[in-house]
């Protein structure tokens, strides 16, 4: 009896998390492809793009040049050169952007830069504020759709933010890009069918001015975008996922990918543990099922960590079964793993073949081992400070 109780107790958490992931994957795979809305007479909305930039002299000209076709008298670009030690400000001005320079080494991070830019806009506020990182690009038609949706729905809107895989990317980087695609495209597509709010991804996101005007942007949180989206959901303005608009960025190198994922995943896990369960239970008690799902979805950890924890529990429940405990927890957990693995393959067939090859995908076990140091650091030494990720080609 004691062994049975222990096996079921170990089973519950990974089973619920795997089931949550499985539902979102299934719906994300089955969801119909939604094309761009039919052309219609549209009201032109004013917008400002805020682009935080810390030491981006090497690449900001290319970013602005790609964005230039979308800029006109209604959409302006404002670059916040934040605590820069290079010529980012001068280069961005020469490229045609409005540039604000911010120097405050005590209050570091993207949130403070965004608050600085937002406050500067107060004298002539736009209808919509768009956040775009200095290494990202978005097509003109996608940008206009993002702005239009945010203004007309009066809700925050997150585009589909993806990383490009290139021929010279290593296997670990490509698999990381695929995990990013699952998180930012497949799962949100499924969660949207359930009516759940979107999670904000930090770039390629738009806000009606009435909502962002007083939002608490000036924080040093590692995942300030995620926290902001949770705040909006609690206030009754849950973010929308706009899968027809795409924001793209190039992946970092292998080591810098690991550094980037360490910072983001540590921040994500801390935030999810703090907010996920209260959101799930509180909204379930009020029968707000879509909001409850949002909280439950937040609790699903990054894919590699979920698989690692699930395999550890599977091994433990299997051992307990060999010692005489009920075998059902181990069997159910193994079945969930098979189902989730099959759904990931289907997601790859639908969306991921340009991101990672089948041969590279077979190296997922090595990817999980590669990520273990990230999770050990979570226990021993959590990442607490924002660190800029090097762009590909930087020393």
UniProtKB/TrEMBL annotation:
Record's keyword annotation contains Glycosyltransferase: yes
EC number(s) on file: 2.4.-.-
GO molecular function: glycosyltransferase activity
Gene3D superfamilies: Spore Coat Polysaccharide Biosynthesis Protein SpsA, Chain A
Pfam families: Glycos_transf_2
Protein family per UniProt: Belongs to the glycosyltransferase 2 family.
SUPFAM superfamilies per UniProt: Nucleotide-diphospho-sugar transferases (SSF53448)
UniProt protein name: Glycosyltransferase
Matches recorded under PANTHER family: POLY-BETA-1,6-N-ACETYL-D-GLUCOSAMINE SYNTHASE
Alphabetical list of InterPro entries matching this protein: Glyco_trans_2-like, Nucleotide-diphossugar_trans
Presence of the UniProt keyword Transmembrane in the record: yes
Transmembrane feature ranges: 6-31, 191-212, 303-323, 330-349, 355-376
Keywords: Glycosyltransferase, Membrane, Transferase, Transmembrane, Transmembrane helix
Chain ranges of the Glycosyltransferase 2-like domain: 49-156
Domain of life according to the entry: Bacteria
């Amino acid at each position: 009896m004691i062994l049975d109780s222990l096996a079921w107790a170990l089973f519950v958490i990974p089973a619920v998390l795997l089931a949550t992931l499985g539902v979102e994957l299934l719906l994300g795979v089955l969801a119909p492809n939604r094309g761009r809305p039919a052309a219609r007479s549209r009201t032109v909305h004013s917008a400002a793009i805020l682009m935080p930039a810390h030491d981006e002299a090497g690449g900001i000209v290319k970013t602005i040049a790609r964005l230039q076709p979308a800029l006109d008298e209604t959409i302006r670009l404002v670059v916040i050169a934040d605590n820069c030690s290079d010529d980012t400000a001068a280069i961005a001005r020469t490229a045609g952007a409005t540039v604000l320079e911010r120097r405050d080494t005590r209050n570091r991070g993207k949130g403070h830069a965004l608050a600085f830019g937002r406050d500067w806009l107060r004298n002539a506020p736009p209808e919509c504020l768009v956040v775009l990182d200095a290494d990202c690009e978005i097509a003109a038609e996608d940008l206009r759709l993002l702005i239009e949706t945010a203004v007309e729905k009066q809700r925050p809107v997150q585009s589909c933010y993806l990383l490009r895989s290139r021929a010279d990317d290593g296997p670990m980087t490509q698999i990381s890009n695929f995990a990013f695609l699952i998180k930012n495209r497949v799962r949100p597509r499924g969660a949207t069918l359930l009516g759940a709010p979107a999670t904000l991804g930090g770039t390629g996101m738009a806000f009606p001015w009435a909502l962002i005007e007083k939002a608490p942007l000036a924080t040093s949180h590692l995942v300030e975008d995620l926290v902001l989206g949770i705040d909006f959901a609690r206030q009754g303005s849950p973010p929308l996922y706009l899968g027809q608009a795409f924001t793209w960025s190039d992946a970092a190198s292998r080591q810098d990918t690991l550094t980037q994922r360490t910072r983001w995943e540590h921040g994500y896990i801390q935030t999810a543990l703090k907010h996920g369960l209260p959101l799930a239970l509180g909204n379930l008690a009020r029968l707000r099922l879509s909001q409850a799902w949002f909280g439950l979805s937040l609790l699903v950890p990054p894919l590699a960590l979920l698989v690692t924890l699930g395999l550890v529990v599977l091994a433990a429940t299997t051992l307990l079964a060999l010692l005489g405990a009920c075998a059902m927890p181990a069997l159910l957990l193994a079945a969930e793993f098979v189902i989730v693995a099959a759904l990931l393959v289907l997601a790859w067939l639908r969306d991921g073949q340009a991101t990672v090859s089948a041969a590279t995908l077979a190296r997922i076990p090595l990817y999980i081992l590669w990520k273990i140091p990230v999770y050990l650091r979570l226990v021993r030494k959590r990442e607490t400070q924002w660190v800029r990720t090097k762009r590909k080609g930087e020393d």
